[in-house]
Amino acid sequence: MIQIDGPFYRIVEPTFELLLPRWEGHDPQTQEEAEGTITLPDGTRYYGTFMTLDAITAVMRRHQSTGECLNGAYFSCEDLIIVHRPGIPAIVEVVRHLITSGELEGACTLLGPEESEL
Questions:
Q1: Which domain of life does the protein's organism represent (predicted)?
Q2: pLDDT by residue (tens digit) across 59-75?
Q3: Which long-range contacts (CB under 8 A, 24 or more apart) does 33-41 make?
């Protein structure tokens, strides 16, 4: 279940807690991008960026007009996890899989204890 926690959405499950910023104009059921902090039960924290292909395409088109990234010739984003479907429920499904498959560490950046959430 998606809970509102101040400026964040918080999703709590037995194997993880996911914290995502609440961006103005983004519906949690249809948003196509999010940055999140994933906390495991032992306190270990990871950071990832989740985007659909449509969101990446939109950024690249915007870069064509702004001149960034060689006029939209490429897109780069650290810790990028491309999701097929939009919405926080799709992101949660992906996080569950990353954890159960053991792929979380390879897909996301490990955050140190001194780093603040998002």
A1: Bacteria
A2: 999 999 999 999 999 99
A3: 34/88, 34/91, 35/118, 36/91, 36/95, 36/118, 37/111, 37/117, 37/118, 38/95, 38/99, 38/104, 38/108, 40/15, 40/16, 40/99, 41/14, 41/15, 41/16
